[in-house]
Write a structure and sequence with these properties.
The complex is a heterodimer.
Chain A lengths: L1 H34 L3 E7 L7 E2 L2 E5 L3 E8 L4 E6 L4 E6 L4 E7 L4 E7 L11 E7 L14 H9 L11 H7 L7 H7 L12 H5 L3 H11 L5 H13 L4 H14 L1 H4 L23 H4 L4 H10 L15 H15 L9
Parallel strand pairs in A: 1-4, 3-9
Antiparallel strand pairs in A: 1-2, 4-7, 5-6, 5-8, 8-9
Helix pairs in contact in A: 4-7, 6-7, 8-12, 11-12
Chain B lengths: L6 E2 H4 L1 H8 L3 H22 L8 H22 L2 H5 L4 H8 L25 H11 L2 H6 L1 H21 L4 H6 L1 H10 L4 E5 L2 H6 L4 H4 E2 L2 E2 L21 H5 L5 E5 L14 H22 L3 H7 L4 H34 L5 H9 L2 H20 L2 H7 L24 H27 L3 H27 L1
Antiparallel strand pairs in B: 1-5, 2-5, 3-4
The chains are: A alpha+beta, B mainly alpha.
């Protein structure tokens, strides 16, 4: 009896010290993956100063269902996966976990990123999902070239150059009032509008100021401020309200921290960037900008300025919507002309 | 008389005596805690690094800690040491048995523990060593797990080198403060009649017999006057052929009045525990974010400054301030007793104050974070399991409006207890009421300032 008790105790000790680890680890890493069709990938989120995402790169196979589990290790983060997946897990508070189960149909590269201003280096908090072709696992599909950026390069436009006007020039050009798209809408029918200006593609590759100069040539009696109102109308007429609201959400999430909620270049993180963030609300600056250059800067980032690239986060359509939204920050939408 | 005013629980509850005398009692309890302990280490190393989703962090630093400091130590003394799994593997290897009393010598090198280390100093420095890393240990499951594992391994190594539970008695940083605060508890293991032990020739409680081992804590029950070093393993209850062991219910804090056993190492343990409670409260619950960052090792120089300040406060500043208090007592009462002896004596006043502070401090985070326990019970590793259907239990702070009242109540009770202890200690030194009362005043001032500091930190 005594011997049996001792053996039972010894067996229990063995069960605890050996059986428990073997059972737990064996189930998690052997039995569980074998009996479930969805692979689980745990990703820890820390502020970039402490390592960012861990792991910051994962490989999945196209067609393979995968659950990505994000756990915040320090502060509140926001997790989204893009581009074009529409996955936004919202806030992940410290010590909590949120997950998304996805099946990537095509090989390619996606990005999981933080959407909440978690630290000074918040924008660095990104991770890559490499989706591999199951028939050709060694092949890494390169990101397709962006036709807009390609065209700009072909045209010889230096995306990284300081666009618009310098401070001294801008002071001379500073508009006496903000251009009014609302006023421009009312005036458009009374003026000669060149055919090319009604073409969205033309507007995207020209600055509003170029349009104002051409309008002035064909409407010699019109005041330049009036012509700027018309340009403001032309540059803001394309986007629907729904598109602008979606773009506004993206802007608030990704741009406002530096550029300011109203595009004044005075966001709470404006002091942390290498160069002072651009003020989109400065109409004189924006009237010297091209939409396709704004688009390229958003997608590629601004070299040496502290402006990160968003091309791996946003779709091309989302980027264009964002550009449309930037124009609404530069001009007034009301028909009332301020004094 | 030794047992005057005591109630012998073993005489009142024969079933309890049967349970405690059973050889299987302690191993069964240890196996249960060993299971939780192994799981805590395993989850710490292999589970999620998110502390609030990790069994190791939640069950060790919230559930176990709350159980220990709020229930076990104040009401049952060293009961945790009865069931603690840390010394178990070492002790089982020493005995080459888990349940039964195996005849023959213990399996150990049988080295002599250095005489100069036969005190609490190692435990004092060990606790301080762990305490300066506590913010990191409490929040990082892997660090926490390696610490627990290291305790276990040190326990095994020391068992292989030295007889009995040298680790528990002289090394364990937790055992040190449990021993100190167990002196307050209303439960004690003693002998019914010390004369019976004195006359007993074979001293089975030390040598062991066929029913049990000699005291692993190296204590002679016949001369036991305090709880500090009795691990309540109940071996003496099994071995005593004279049926002379009793488990008493007694007034709180009886051991504090045992003047001849007071020592400087224990006095310093009281300072360290009180100082750590104060500093933890400031770091973890206070409004100073920078201090928390320093403790969390945001940069090495910051942490070094924090650690230096932490150690200096506990070993020099707090004892130094208390030294001034004792100097004042000597001035007021014109006593001729040596200063060091008075310093040690009055330091025991801080034991109830310190325990109350730890309980109040623990209320601050245990009730707030206790609900995490349900989630990690179902998903101990944070791997997305749901063993008992509670994995999705959301964080729900409990009794947040009650916490300040509990803290004020406990701290006030601790203060009153401390003042009463100070007066009783004074009466041991000066017979008359008036000088004893005067001697109490400086200590009372110190205790009031300390209590107010805690209240300031907790209530803002």
């Amino acid at each position: 009896m005594k011997h049996r008790t001792e053996l039972l105790a010894l067996f229990t000790v063995g069960l605890i010290l050996i059986g428990l680890p073997v059972a737990a680890l064996g189930y998690q890493h052997g039995l569980r993956p074998a009996t479930t069709s969805t692979r689980v990938i745990d990703i820890d989120a820390r502020i970039p100063e402490n390592g960012g995402f861990g792991p910051d790169a994962v490989r999945v196979t196209a067609g393979e269902p995968v659950t990505l589990r994000f756990a915040s290790m320090d502060v509140t983060h926001g997790i989204a996966i893009g581009p074009g997946l529409g996955v936004d897990l919202g806030h992940v508070d410290p010590g909590t976990v949120k997950e998304a189960t996805l099946t990537f149909d095509e090989p390619g590269t996606y990005t999981y990123y933080c959407t909440t201003w978690c630290s000074a280096d918040h924008w660095r908090m990104r991770g890559t999902i490499q989706v591999i072709d199951p028939d050709n696992p060694g092949l890494v599909v390169p990101a397709p070239p962006d036709p807009v950026i390609e065209k700009l390069i072909e045209e010889g436009v230096d995306i990284d150059a300081v666009h618009g006007v310098d401070q001294e020039h801008r002071a001379m050009l500073a508009f006496e009032r903000q251009p009014s798209a609302g006023q421009g809408t009312a005036l458009a029918d009374t003026l000669v509008i060149l055919m090319e200006m009604t073409d969205r593609e033309w507007r995207r590759s020209h600055t509003p100021m170029q349009a104002v100069e051409r309008l002035a040539a064909h409407n010699p009696r019109s005041d330049e401020a009036v012509l700027r109102d018309v340009a403001a109308y032309l540059w803001t007429q394309d986007a629907s309200l729904e598109t602008l609201l979606q773009a506004e959400a993206l802007y608030n999430q990704s741009c406002a921290a530096c550029h300011g909620q109203y595009g004044s270049g005075d966001g709470p993180a404006a002091d942390t960037t290498a160069e002072t963030p651009v003020a989109f609300a400065d109409a004189a600056y924006m009237f010297e900008m091209r939409s396709d250059v704004l688009y390229a800067k958003i997608r590629r980032g601004g070299m040496g300025t502290g402006m990160p690239n968003f091309g791996t986060l946003f779709t091309q359509a989302e980027t264009w919507a964002l550009v449309e939204y930037l124009w609404t920050l530069a001009v007034s939408s009301t028909a009332d002309v301020p004094e | 008389m030794l047992n005057d005013g005591r109630i012998d629980l073993l005489a009142r509850a024969p079933l309890l005596k049967r349970v405690l005398k059973a050889r299987a009692f302690q191993p069964v309890m240890m196996l249960l805690t060993l299971f939780a302990f192994t799981l805590a280490i395993l989850t710490g190393i292999a589970g999620t690094p998110a502390g609030s989703r990790n069994f190791g962090i939640i069950f060790v630093w919230i559930v176990w800690w709350a159980l220990l400091i709020v229930v076990l130590v104040p009401f049952f003394g060293r009961l945790w040491c009865t069931v603690c799994p840390i010394p178990a593997p070492g002790e089982w290897l020493q005995r080459r048995a888990i349940v039964q009393r195996r005849p023959g010598k213990l399996w150990t090198r049988g080295l002599r523990w250095p005489r100069r280390l036969k005190n609490m100093w190692l435990q004092n420095f060990g606790f301080l060593g762990v305490a300066v890393f506590s913010t990191i240990i409490l929040t990082r499951p892997s660090v926490s797990a390696w610490l627990l594992l290291s305790f276990l391994l040190v326990g095994v190594v020391l068992s292989a080198l030295y007889k009995n539970r040298v680790f528990c008695r002289y090394v364990c940083p937790v055992g040190g403060f449990i021993g100190l605060y167990s002196m307050l508890s209303p439960v004690e293991l003693r002998v019914a009649d010390p004369d019976v032990c004195a006359d007993h020739k074979t001293k089975d409680c030390i040598t062991g017999n066929e029913f049990g081992y000699g005291c692993p804590w190296m204590v002679f029950p016949g001369s036991l006057t305090r709880n500090a070093y009795c691990g309540m393993c109940m071996e003496c209850l099994k071995t005593c052929p004279k049926n002379n062991i009793v488990l008493n219910l007694r007034p709180f804090g009886s051991d504090l009045m045992v003047a001849k056993e007071r020592r400087l190492d224990e006095a310093y343990k009281a300072f360290i525990m009180l100082g750590c409670a104060l500093l933890y409260s400031a770091v973890l619950l206070g409004p100073w974010g920078w201090l928390k960052n320093w403790a969390n090792m945001d940069t090495l120089p910051h942490w070094l400054l924090y650690a230096a300040g932490f150690v200096t406060f506990n070993l020099a500043v707090l004892p130094g301030l208390f030294g001034l208090v004792v100097w004042l007592i000597r001035r007021v009462t014109r006593q001729k007793r040596p200063f060091p002896q008075m310093f040690v004596d009055y330091a025991y006043t801080l034991i109830p104050l310190g325990l109350a502070a730890w309980i109040a401090f623990s209320f601050g985070f245990v009730l707030v974070n206790g609900s995490y326990a349900l989630a990690v019970l179902s998903d101990p590793f944070g791997w997305g399991w749901d063993l008992f259907g509670t994995a999705d239990t959301s964080w729900t702070p409990l009794g947040t409006s009650l916490i300040p009242f509990l803290q004020v109540g406990v701290l006030t009770a601790g203060l009153v207890f401390a003042l009463n202890t100070a007066y009783k200690i004074a009466r041991q030194q000066v017979v008359n009421h008036r000088p004893a009362f005067l001697a109490t005043l400086p200590v009372a001032g110190f205790a009031v300032v300390v209590t107010l500091s805690f209240l300031r930190l907790y209530l803002g």
